[in-house]
Amino acid sequence: MARFADPHRCPDCGSAILPGQPACTACDLPLAGELAQRLYRTLVTADDLVAELRASARRPVPASTSASLVPGRSASSTVPGRSASSTVSDAGVGPMAGTTSGPVRRKGLSAASVPKILLGLGAVCVLVAALVFLAVTWSVMGVGGRTATLVGLTLFCGLLAAWLARHDLRGGAEALALVALGLLTLDIFGARDAGWLGDVSDATFLVVIGLVLVLAGGGAAVAVRRTPARALISAELVAGLGTAAAAIGVATLPGISGSAGLVAAVILGGAVVLASVRLDLGWTSVSASVVTALTWLALLGSALDRATAHPDFGTLWLDLDGWPFLAAAALVGTLTLVDRLPVAARVGAAAVTYAVLVLALSVPVSDEGSTAVAGAAAGVLAFTAALCWWAPPQWRPTGLVVQVFAGLVILGYGLGLVLSSAQRLAEAASADWAGGLTGRLSPLTTGSSLPAPWLLPLMVLALLLTFVTVVQLVPDQVTAQMRLRLTPAAAARVGVLVLAVTVVVTLSLFSVPVWSVVVAGAVIAVALAGWWMRTGSLLTVIASASFLAGAVVVSGYDDLLMALTLSLAVLVAAMVHLRATQPETSAMAGAVLTTALAGSTWTWGQLAGVTD
């Protein structure tokens, strides 16, 4: 059987050639070099495939399914270097019965895997030998000799890593590059111990070693792209570690205050992130971003520490002692100007910037008591709601961070006031007719734990405005799928009910007559019942019944007050029972009517002195 790989014939024209001949004498085809060796290996592979095809052919294939083995050649054409008798006929080509049409998979290691493994093992052996030599001779060498030895080992490992990368030995290149960068770190320590760097402080030394690692790691990661290895992840990560070392060094440099050093460290980290993004060093950009974010958090912590030490407005802003807040906000705010960043990242940066500014302005209020804190939080919520309402749609989430934290403050104080109101009303209701029409609720002694009661309506109004703006951020598809679509009419009903509850709760927090709270609840119940007659909303009639029930419970403070309240409940229940169009509503109103009528009759009987 003729072969494609014939060492005695030219692979192009088929002329006879001599071993070691640099080129074909007939067609001048070069026969030496890497490219010629690759061609010969390919022809050897072709011979192996032909042998496998012949071995797998057990029966002839019909001529209708035949095809040429070589694309672009006819079945009768000859291959250079082969006789016409060795050409493949139409019947012996193409997909054969019992065989797959795809490429034949070869088992075992490929031809290129063996040298890769051997070279990797050789690199490991060389490294181990160098470490053994260094361990044996380290004690007999001076400082200069040790440093020179480390420098030599560093250069050797670096050159060996470059050689492995050029030969597409990625694993060995990664390992030796990491060893070389580690030895480079030891070189710098050795140079310092030898006195070659002069009398430098620890912070300055950290800056030097960090910058060296950033430049060396980043340079190696960029240079390896010209080789078949294409990337060195270890070098990129070392550049990120160098960024951390340099940031720590800059933040602790002598002569620079803590906040100023942290600002410089954030700027340094941002510069490394920008450079790594421009150079497409993914792992360096990620690690440097983490370092920069942690440094920025340290700057914010330093600003809070300075502000809490002197929280008064004059020291913080008139004396510019709160400048770290402005610096932290400005550093994050610059990200909103980067057009290449995604819109979500820019909006997030704007949200953090706004949150830092609000925090800076709120620090002087933190020592002024709960009323000042709650008032400031309500004002911030109202201002943020207006700001987000008028902002472009894509920038409306900017105030979300502030709204969450300020809303939690308002909710905490509001819940405290509601619980205090419930406790006071429960005490009045448990009097068992022992009170009188002139009786008052006990004065509220909040101290510094709860804000002033008059602030509660403003707090609730700020929460309602915030709720409206936050709901606008939810996509329509989500609200439609979850059936949470809030129409203006539904929002108005919910807002009116919340404000009505707020009025009763706020009134009960003052030392007012008990009857005034009962009258307020009863008036709201009647108003809601009238609203129900116009709208027919089930939520409205349920709220009316709830207010009326609360008024009846609190009216237990006095017998006459309860009798009057129950009589009003009879009238309202009768009106709802007669006007209701839905059977469920009518039945519920009828049950309330029966209960209220029985209670009213019994109470008026007690007042009239009628005994059982």
User: How far apart are the termini?
Assistant: 126 Å
Shape category: elongated
Radius of gyration: 43 Å
Mean pLDDT: 81
Strand content: under 5%
State the secondary-structure class: mainly alpha
Count up the domains: 4
| Number of beta strands | 0
What's the helical proportion of residues?
55-70%
Listing every helix as H and every strand as E from the N terminus to the C terminus, the arrangement reads HHHHHHHHHHHHHHHHHHHH
Unreliable residue runs: 61-108
Write a concise keyword list for the protein shown above:
single chain; 612 residues; mainly alpha; 20 helices; 0% strand
Topology:
Elements: H1 34-56, H2 113-137, H3 143-166, H4 170-193, H5 202-223, H6 233-251, H7 258-278, H8 282-309, H9 313-318, H10 323-333, H11 343-362, H12 370-390, H13 400-429, H14 456-471, H15 476-482, H16 488-508, H17 514-535, H18 538-554, H19 559-579, H20 583-607
Helix pairs in contact: 2-3, 3-4, 4-5, 4-6, 5-6, 6-7, 6-8, 7-8, 7-10, 8-10, 10-11, 12-13, 12-14, 13-14, 14-16, 16-17, 17-18, 17-19, 18-19, 19-20
